[in-house]
């Protein structure tokens, strides 16, 4: 029972939270019920008070006539008779004058009593009980009333209004009381309460029905707009709302359709522009490969005889070779990003140890750290952290993050940390350099984005490194994100599932912006990987299709430096 009640409460709370119609009807029900309850109680209170006032007025008029009749009858009887006999005679005369009997539903039942303070000497009818508090007021010469429950001769009891009055007769302490039954009044009140309750229930139901109809007229177009908006978001750009009438809902539908039409045109234009851009990138990349190969062959032949040239020509030869290297890197990145755009990028899956990937990435950027004088520290467990992934893409991502961290560390230490859990393996690269301003955490993964284009770069770069890195991680079903503080440093985190596109609920490492700290000059501690394993993993790395081996990529990048967190 408790479980069902809990389920009902949860269902009601869910409906209240998710349905505007339920909230409108529920609010109308509560408000109407409260108003009807207040009005019903007020009406019942007023009617009850009117009935009681009417009963009291009737009692006051009747008690005066009864007192006069009793005094006349007592005066007409002989004082020599017993008090009980005289009282019974006066009561009989009073009863006969009313023309009804008490037990037959008379409007009142007369009671005569001789009382002194708290002592009752004679009562007619005998044994009738009058409340002591009422007798006390009457004994003091006051006409008083009191509601009290009294009994009949058959043993039944009923509520009644009792009014009492003192008399002026030759019997000291004689008091006359009238007992007015409240049964008819109670039946009237019960009938009124039933009528008010029934009317209130009918009114509440009618108002709820009206509220439901009104809410339905308003909610239906809203539901339609919500459904069509969801279908538009799902790519069904031709969905439109139906326009009926000329009211506010019709104007809403027309405005919605106008907006949908405008959005559809803009989306189609963006899609066309995107397709053209991807096609242009792909065509240019492929068309440039052949002439670039010819130029490279010519440049290599010229470079072979550079020693025979004068200094100016030799310097021009070196610049030409460096720019050709950078051009080849840019072309390779363009080809790679075009493969991602076309959706033809695939994974060459193999079982690997993330520590080997970190070590290989470090081997390829170690010369850059030595050139700039940046200390790189490694932190992580010594045991293997295996996962199934494309080793070439993972190493390219780590190499890119390491090169960026070294390039933007401003000479401060860089820390590489790795960890794993049952679901995933994570690597963070933290530097204490220029950092990231607020809002740049997402921009760093945009193509060709640079935080400070004027800043000098040590490793060169094409501006596509982090964009490709993000696509590589997404291809694995992983996460690549960043955080940082301007002037303090930045941290990039790679989270890869143990198997491609596996579920990741908790990352082994948290993404935390670095805090200012003083660095200590320590020798970098590489992941503890046996040489045999490292050698085997290095030999197993496949060459990237249409580009150089991954180990040669950092060396090929030149002259242009990326902004904070940018791909090199």
UniProtKB/TrEMBL annotation:
Domain annotation Histidine kinase: ranges: 283-500
Keywords: ATP-binding, Cell membrane, Kinase, Membrane, Nucleotide-binding, Phosphoprotein, Transferase, Transmembrane, Transmembrane helix, Two-component regulatory system
Region (Disordered): 505-568
Membrane topology: Multi-pass membrane protein
Spans traversing the lipid bilayer: 24-47, 190-215
Catalyzed chemical reaction(s): ATP + protein L-histidine = ADP + protein N-phospho-L-histidine
One matching Pfam family: HisKA
Main localization, broad class: membrane
Compositionally biased region (Acidic residues): 512-524
GO molecular function: ATP binding; phosphorelay sensor kinase activity
Highest taxon listed in the record's lineage: Bacteria
E.C. code: 2.7.13.3
Subcellular location, record wording: Cell membrane
Extent of Low complexity compositional bias: 525-544
GO CC term (a single one): plasma membrane
Domain HAMP per the UniProt entry, residue ranges: 216-268
Keyword Transmembrane helix (UniProt): yes
PANTHER family: HYBRID SIGNAL TRANSDUCTION HISTIDINE KINASE C, TWO-COMPONENT HISTIDINE KINASE
Name of the protein this chain belongs to: Sensor histidine kinase MtrB
């Amino acid at each position: 029972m408790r479980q069902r009640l809990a389920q009902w409460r949860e269902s009601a709370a869910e409906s209240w939270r998710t349905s505007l119609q339920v909230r409108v009807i529920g609010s109308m029900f509560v408000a109407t019920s409260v108003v009807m309850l207040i009005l019903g109680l007020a009406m019942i209170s007023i009617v009850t008070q009117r009935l009681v006032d009417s009963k009291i007025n009737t009692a006051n008029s009747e008690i005066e006539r009864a007192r006069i009749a009793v005094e006349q009858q007592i005066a007409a009887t002989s004082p020599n008779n017993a008090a009980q006999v005289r009282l019974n005679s006066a009561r009989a005369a009073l009863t006969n004058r009313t023309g009804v009997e008490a037990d037959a539903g008379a409007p009142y039942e007369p009671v005569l009593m001789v009382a002194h303070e708290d002592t009752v000497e004679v009562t007619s009818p005998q044994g009738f009980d009058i409340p002591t508090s009422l007798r006390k007021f009457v004994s003091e010469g006051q006409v008083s009333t009191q509601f009290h429950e009294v009994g009949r001769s058959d043993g039944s009891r009923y509520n009644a209004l009792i009014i009492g009055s003192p008399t002026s007769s030759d019997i000291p302490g004689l008091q006359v009381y009238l007992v007015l039954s409240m049964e008819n009044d109670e039946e009237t009140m019960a009938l009124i309460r039933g009528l008010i309750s029934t009317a209130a229930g009918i009114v509440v139901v009618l108002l709820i029905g009206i509220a439901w109809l009104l809410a339905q007229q308003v909610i239906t177009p809203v539901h339609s707009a919500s459904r069509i908006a969801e279908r538009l978001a799902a790519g069904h750009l031709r969905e439109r709302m139906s326009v009926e009438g000329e009211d506010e809902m019709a104007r809403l539908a027309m405005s919605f359709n106008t907006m949908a039409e405008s959005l559809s045109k803009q989306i189609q234009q963006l899609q066309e522009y995107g397709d053209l851009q991807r096609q242009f990138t792909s065509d240019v990349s492929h068309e440039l490969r052949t002439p670039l190969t010819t130029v490279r062959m010519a440049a290599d032949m010229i470079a072979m005889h550079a020693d025979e040239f004068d200094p100016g020509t030799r310097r021009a030869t070196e610049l030409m070779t460096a720019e050709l290297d950078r051009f080849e890197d840019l072309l390779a990145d363009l080809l790679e990003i075009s493969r991602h755009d076309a959706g033809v990028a695939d994974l060459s899956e193999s079982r690997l140890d993330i520590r080997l990937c970190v070590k290989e990435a470090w081997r390829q950027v170690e010369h850059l750290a030595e050139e700039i004088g940046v200390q790189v520290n490694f932190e992580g467990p010594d045991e293997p952290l295996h996962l199934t992934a494309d080793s070439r893409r993972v190493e390219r991502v780590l190499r890119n993050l390491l090169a960026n961290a070294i390039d933007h560390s401003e000479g401060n230490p860089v820390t590489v940390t790795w960890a794993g859990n049952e679901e995933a393996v994570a690597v963070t690269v933290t530097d204490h350099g220029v950092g990231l301003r607020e809002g740049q955490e997402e921009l760093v993964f945009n193509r060709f984005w640079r935080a400070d284009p004027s800043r000098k770069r040590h490793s060169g770069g094409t501006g596509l490194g982090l964009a490709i890195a993000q696509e590589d991680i997404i291809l694995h079903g992983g996460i690549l994100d960043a955080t940082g503080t301007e002037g303090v440093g930045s941290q990039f985190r790679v989270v890869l599932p143990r198997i491609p596109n596996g579920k990741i609920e908790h990352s082994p490492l948290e993404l935390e912006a670095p805090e200012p700290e003083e660095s200590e000059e320590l020798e970098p501690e590489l992941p503890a990987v046996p040489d045999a394993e490292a050698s085997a993993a290095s030999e197993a790395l496949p060459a990237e299709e249409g580009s150089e081996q991954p180990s040669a990529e950092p060396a090929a990048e030149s002259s242009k430096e990326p902004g904070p967190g940018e791909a090199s």
